[in-house]
Amino acid sequence: NVTFSPTAAGARTGSLTVNAGGNSNTVTLSGTGTAPGPVLNANPGSLTFPGTVVGNTAASQSVTITNTGTTTATVSGVAASGDFSETNNCSSLAVNASCTATVTFKPTTSGTRTGTLTVTSNANNSPTSVGLSGSGIGSTTNLALNQPTTASGSQSGFPPSNAVDGNTSTYWES
Question: Dihedral sign, CA of 104, 110, 112, 113?
Fold first, then answer.
């Protein structure tokens, strides 16, 4: 039996050599030491919300926060920045226990919107962060821009793709 008892955090390597009957066999050993204490991990590590009309709220998405450390974690705060908000049931997490942060997206303007879900705790790796992104659709957002087009007919020089090319000088004729 081989026992792994690291004295520091991080990757550790070693070898085990067995000599028997004049033969020597060596086996490479490796492991990862974890510092004593709580360690929080978030899954997934990022959230992407679909295009959402400015002022409306997209369907919520969840992040699971798990304590993979060696002692209980105390969560002191969970916050979302930007056009994102959150609710959570995180407080004290025993070893291997989880909690959930539910994130919503309500864009305040059109275009790409970003933010961060931040979990603050007594964990060795605090704060734990999750990247957030979404797209706000405003009244001037062209939903048809560069989308696929088909038509039962068209005039030469006026293909259906002109209808969605974003150029107000071109058009489609049937």
Answer: negative
The three-state secondary structure class of 35 is coil
Length of the chain: 174
112 closest CA partner among 129, 131, 137, 86: 137
Instruction: List per-residue pLDDT tens for the chain, 174 residues long.
Output: 888 887 777 888 889 888 988 899 999 999 988 778 999 999 999 999 999 999 999 999 999 999 999 999 999 999 999 999 999 999 999 999 999 999 999 999 999 999 999 999 999 999 999 999 999 998 876 767 777 887 877 777 778 777 777 777 777 777
CA atoms within 13 A on the CB side of 27: 7
Angle 69-78-95 from CA coordinates, rounded to 5°: 20
| DSSP for residue 155 | B
